[in-house]
Specification:
Helices cover 43% and strands 24% of the residues. It has 225 residues and is an alpha/beta fold. The strands form four sheets. It has a five-stranded parallel sheet with strand order 2-1-3-6-7, sandwiched between helices. Strands 8-9-10-11 form a four-stranded antiparallel sheet, with helices on one face. A three-stranded antiparallel sheet has the order 12-14-13. Strand 6 (74-79), helix 4 and strand 7 (97-100) form a beta-alpha-beta unit. Helix 2 (33-42) packs parallel to helix 3 (59-69). The protein is globular and about 55 Å long.
């Protein structure tokens, strides 16, 4: 899950990024309105965490802009504003949650995970596809009820595919999801191919069908056909 943290207080932004990163999320940061606006127009995110008070703009405007770009991106507002009116406005314009500062990072983490489950897997802590089962809380994967061990990137890749079953995913989209802005410096998508090759091999070795299909000129698809 790729998250954009829009927060001008750099120490808080770094703390959030570090905490969520340890939970397996890919985090990017924007410290002002202009950078945030540029990022949401250039890249795709499963979730944005946005402060209302930015040095060059208002977080509410980012929320409205995000909803126009993508109706499926989860939005969590974090703010020192504790008024009922601000909370109502945030929800009315499209945010999914509102967390008042100061907050515990563990609470934000729980809300991000809950939002991810609601958006992608009907709120369930477990997801399955035929013989494959994933426990989201424990980040464990089972094939025919036998646990298999994946690297962080392989796990993120499998979860991304299961969130987009039967949909064609470009190599660029996969690379951006796994590495965020860092992929901009890559000369090719060999890293994507390597991760997919390893994931496919591990799944098949555990007895899974080969659900990973290459689509010529586009990328990959996960599904029966």
């Amino acid at each position: 899950m790729k998250i954009l943290i829009i927060e001008d207080e750099r120490s808080l932004s770094e703390s959030i990024s570090s905490h969520l990163g340890k939970e397996g999320f890919t985090c990017e940061q924007a410290y002002n309105y202009d950078t945030a606006s540029e990022k949401i127009n250039l890249y795709s995110y499963e979730c944005i965490i946005v402060d209302l008070n930015l040095p060059d703009g208002i977080g509410f405007d980012i929320v409205e802009q995000m909803k126009k770009i993508s109706s499926t991106t989860g939005i969590i507002i974090i703010s020192a504003r504790n008024s009922v009116d601000d909370k109502i406005k945030g929800l009315e314009i499209g945010s999914d949650d509102y967390l008042t500062k100061p907050f515990h990072l563990s609470e934000l983490n729980a809300r991000v995970k809950s939002l991810f489950r609601r958006k992608n897997f009907q709120g369930s802590n477990e997801i399955g596809y035929n013989e494959i089962r994933i426990n989201l809380n424990q980040r464990t994967v089972f094939v025919h009820e036998e646990e298999m061990h994946l690297s962080k990137k392989e796990y993120d890749l499998l979860l991304y595919f299961l969130s987009n079953k039967e949909n064609a995913l470009t190599k660029a989209a996969i690379a951006e999801h796994l590495w965020g802005d860092n992929i901009d410096s890559a000369d090719s998508f060999d890293l994507v191919y390597s991760q997919i090759k390893n994931l496919r091999r591990k799944l098949i070795e555990k007895g899974s069908k080969d659900y990973l299909h290459s689509i010529y000129g586009i990328g990959y698809k996960f599904g029966e056909h």
